[in-house]
Amino acid sequence: MEDWHEALRIPCVNTSTTISFDSNQNLLWSGSADGHTVSYHDSALRRYTSFRTFTSSPVLQVLTQEKYVISLGNSGVRLNNRRGILKHNYASPAMKSLSCMSFTKDTHEILVGGSEKKLLKINLDTQIITPVKCKGTVTKLTRASQAIAGCKTDGTIDIFDLNSNQIVKTFNSPGGIISDMDAKESILMTCGYSQKKVGFVLDPLINVYDLRAGKSLPPIPFPAGAGFVRLHPKLSTCVIIASQNGQIQILDYANPANVYLHQADLSGQLVGMEVSPSGDFMALLDGSFIQLWNNVNTGSSFLEFANPTEYPAIDLGGPELSLDDPDSSFSSVGLPYYKEELLSSWSDPSFVYNVGMPSNTNFSQDSVTDMKPTGFGGFMGFNKAKLKNTAQKYVSYDKKNGSTVPMFISEKLRSGQVEDLTSLFADDDKNSKNAPKIYWKHDIQYSRFGINDFDFAAYNNTKYSGLEHHSPNAYCNPLLQVYRYSDSFFRFALNYLTHNKLDEKSLLSELGLLFDMLDKAQGQHCQALNFLKTLSQIPQANALGLILDDHKSTTNNKRSLLSEGLLLQSFCRFLMEQIASEGGVRFESIAGCPTTIETKVPSCGTTSSRHSIFYNIELYAPKLFLIQSKPTFLQALQDSFVRTTQTRGWCDKCKKYQTVHSTKIIEKLPITLNIHIPLGKSSQEDAITEIIGLRQPEGEVLMDERFYRNTNWPALSFGLNKGMKVVDAKNVHENGDIYELMGIVIEVGQPESHLVSYVRIDEKTRGSKVKAKNWYLFNDFLVKQVSESEVLNFTHRWKSPVMLVYQKKLDLPPFDVEDWRSRLDTSILYRDHFAAGVRENIQREYTLLTKEEAPKPGTLVAMDAEFVMLQQEETEIISDGTRSLLRPRVLSLARVSVVRGEGALQGIPFIDDFIMMREDTIVDYLTQFSGIEPGDLDPMTSRRSLVTRQTSYKKLWLLLNLGCIFIGHGLANDFRTINIQVPAAQVIDTLDIYFIKSRQRRLSLKFLAWLLLDQNVQTGNHDSIEDARTALFLYNKYQELVREGKFEQTLAHIYSEGKKYNFKPPPVVIPAAVPVPPAAAAPAV
Prior knowledge:
elongated; 22 helices; metal-binding; WD40/YVTN_repeat-like_dom_sf; mRNA processing; 6-stranded mixed β-sheet; alpha+beta; about 30% strand; 52 strands; Nucleotidyltransferase, domain 5; nucleic acid binding; nuclease
């Protein structure tokens, strides 16, 4: 400590008032009397930045954090980055004659004091200003380990607890006015003035306090009069004391005899003193000069681990090139600045010609196979379908090699372009062995606006909705689409919804809800998210290997190694069994095939018989080389009704394993018939199945693909006569049944293997009572009408059948929606149904509906939902720095609140459900935006009204089907995450009401409430009841403005005011809580 000396002295730009070392970078900051903030870099004190912070106030104090430099003035606080750019300005009527500030628990919150008899706590992230009660005017603030010390004009020192914001201790200083103080851990030191006969003079003592024990310690003498005191940041008992005339004393207060004295050469009185975070530098300020002191053995850094300081890039200029050097590249010389278009970029369309592409030199695989080899190569016959050396039609490289993705909606609005959607899926090479583009697996692209910017309409211009595929296990989508348009399945699933099945995981309920959503969507894209999530939570499905992760593979899933076709067939069998167990015997007539199974042991003649129900038939066709002629589809179907297989089994009579013959005899066909195609496997898949133990059962024959490789397969219809005789539909008897093909699931092989489905939909045409039978292709969210000939054409190698679905021809009346709605069980709306039974001591913030308030068509309700995050977003940054969103974050419903929109109890909530989560892993509660705290969704710790996801969803679904109109702000995002489809006629969104399309800016609920309703909402964490009620009041305000004819004028005023305030309300000053006088307190019970 004896080696401290002055290392450098620089003049101040203006009269400096304060100095401060940066806590993150190697910088020294100073503030001036004219409002400038200046920074100096490293121990050489090179000028780094200088910017104007205040126009009519000196800079009183400077604090630094990771992102910002915080400057204090007389009437405000400003946040700038280290380059001087203003980030935020805190100014309010409560900020008068400010004098000090300090960080609280961390560097994201500060406490500001001044002449007002209160402190202001400012959250630098949320911009919320909260008052803290204080007695008297605070002149100095400093932070200790667990508290903040504030000194006042009368010399007393208040200790504030950081958790309760209460004064926990007050010390009375022996002197009068405190000039400086500092704290470290639990030690606080102060110095100041005392009242003498000649006036106020500096005390010759440093007062020491132990904050942990709450008592004073022996003072430290300093005869020259202490004006400044700083505790050393590294040495635990070292303190640096300085007088106003420059005398510096460095001592160990645990051993007062160890003292070192120094004298600074000042041009005036000492104004400020600071010690660097490394403890190796000390800065002195005398108003005109800044002195930098250091130790002989110290380095040049103010911090031990400083972040790099940003400097502007230096333009080194271009390289010098010689005109005589033939190797010189003039393209390396940069272009000068120009305002007009260069000639090299001239692109007049009248001078651009498409001259075609080079002749096609790509040969098909069949041609290469037929090539006749010669000594140097080979030759083959020319395809005479077109002339030799014919130039191909011009196709740009980007279009030829790029994916089939339409422009984003925002790009179309910004550029004004009209995209040619017909050419988007056009196939340039008709002879390609790959599937046409409409059969490709298409990916959803995400812009910075998320999924709402993706143009789904480019993939579907029909009234039938597709399903998104970015959810795990979306391989089920094609089969779900087929069953949606099966009349018997649709009626059975929707009728099941008339009962409340809330406690168990019901696939049938989720299937009915999905069918209802697809029906209401009318061509809008949907998600099977709830159905697939329920499927993944059923242990039997996981045990059967039906559950895939995001990358379509699982560590314990044997079946995932096989094709998606085999996986879908297994899923179909499981789904039918699951629906049968939930729906009862009524489902057997819809999809069940009563079957007799006869077994016989040839060695001993033992026979047995049993009855069972199967929900699918496996189409049988023998190997073609074993028979003389290829069977027809109807012959193969007839042979499938009676199947004999040979296996090894235990014989009770012989008391050993014997060869057993099993014969399955189908006795009756259901309304909806599922036919599975025995899929052939590649040699690689055969090896896999042998390794993992999934060998083909003996006697089961895989279908030869030549059986269906023709242009008219399968049969569009067939008849079933008495005795289970399959005939052509034209030859069916009077009492026979006719089955019509209504769905096919196919596996597309190239360029990427996946599943799609054809579905036949009966549509009424205008002016005709006859229904047209049209075929549609469902490729996830792509839906296109296709011809019947295309559906039945299986000559393409990329197209293989997986499942056929036939439906019995029945003359049924149309589904009566009104009768169905009248049978809905709505009791769940009038009672609680908690996830863990009756819960005691819950925080109930709602009043249940009564029968007198029963919702009816047109009833207004306001709602809002809160969500938690289950998975972070996935992004990709390529080499040029472009950042693209691969998959958005995954959110899950955590809370939903619904309030009454009319009546005597308008604004009172009747639903406030917190969703129980046991099986999901929450990565972020998003508390600041959702208001959900850790433990709120756990039934073991929560005091909230916890319900299952199925219960909360069923309530909203009932309100939807009862005809309620939902009011809210940004409901589209809420409905999408909840996964419910609400028709536009039943939605009133204040986000769309208070919106001018030409401004291209949406207004927040918080800003609208402040400007129109004079209410400050979302001041802390979000609350869904408050948000729903605010949206309701905004709608009422809209109706009032429309009645008065002032809405357009008011909307223009809102946008005008929004520009002034950056579309954000001013920071909220929350009034301090007023203590209740003892006399007014409630009497004890």
